[in-house]
Amino acid sequence: MKPALVVTSIVGPNEPLSLLAAGAIKHGWSFYVIGDQKSPVDFRLAGCQYLAIADQLCLPFRYSQQCPPNHYARKNIGYLVAIRDGAKIIVETDDDNLPRESFWAPRELDREGVFLPTAGWTNVYKLFSDNSIWPRGFPLTEIRKPVPNRTELSPVNSECPIQQGLADGNPDVDAIYRLVFDHDTHFTANKAVILGENAWCPFNSQNTTWFESVFPFLYLPAHCSFRMTDIWRSFVATRWLQKKRGRIAFHSATVYQQRNQHNLMKDFADEVVGYLSNSEIKEVLEAVPWSPKPEVFMQSAYAQLIARGWVGKNELELLASWFADLANLGLRYNKDGGNL
Question: What is the CATH number of domain 4-328?
């Protein structure tokens, strides 16, 4: 099964996109680049299927007609196109990540690693680095919490339908980290860390592999903070997998990030809601009645996020369109949460 690669971009064919396209050709991957209103009108890159806004509006998806422009959530359209074209594995990254050769390694559902049984928040980045570092979305109150020693963790081989790869260079950390520290990061190439059923650590959309059983949880909310869309997605997916006894793996870096230019104070402002609320969001999601059907659980989860003002009320309409499109594509689930 060859993965499908999905990226959203408002830049032209830069070095990372060109390397991704060349690698997709070499390794036989499908590669989709999802444009937006700010994207170049003359985007051309061999090895990728580029979808401008006009192309997206011609797709037979309810979601593509409703998703707001100029938003990272348009990446959802790329996921739908990949599923339409038969993808069973979806890999996502961004247009500022340079793939290493290890990025193109075959993706396997079963993953060897060390098992993290710790309950609650655990800073997985610290299990790959001796430096002071934490992932974007990690509660600030938990940064000083000690992490287990790797030698204390048991080896395990487990099904991991979500696998988060790290990024060297300028990895996915929050604005506070970037405002305080100014240096490149290189994570150690240790065995993957596989989260236990009560362990929490945010994962992002920078270098992430998704298998078909969790495709519904690819959904990025549009009516929320831009800097929290993939983080809150990760919380929803984490809670569902915890109850289903599914696993999330974090593995060593297979990309090097040369981060696009950002206004760090704007990033900080967009992240404030997460600094203030992420621990509470975890508690709210833990109280959501669990259902083996992703649609039922996600509707309940986002209804709670909306009720508390973290997500806008129009999100439920987008979510309904997302699931209608998945159903039309044949992605349905039985009473145990497995694919029909």
Answer: 3.90.550
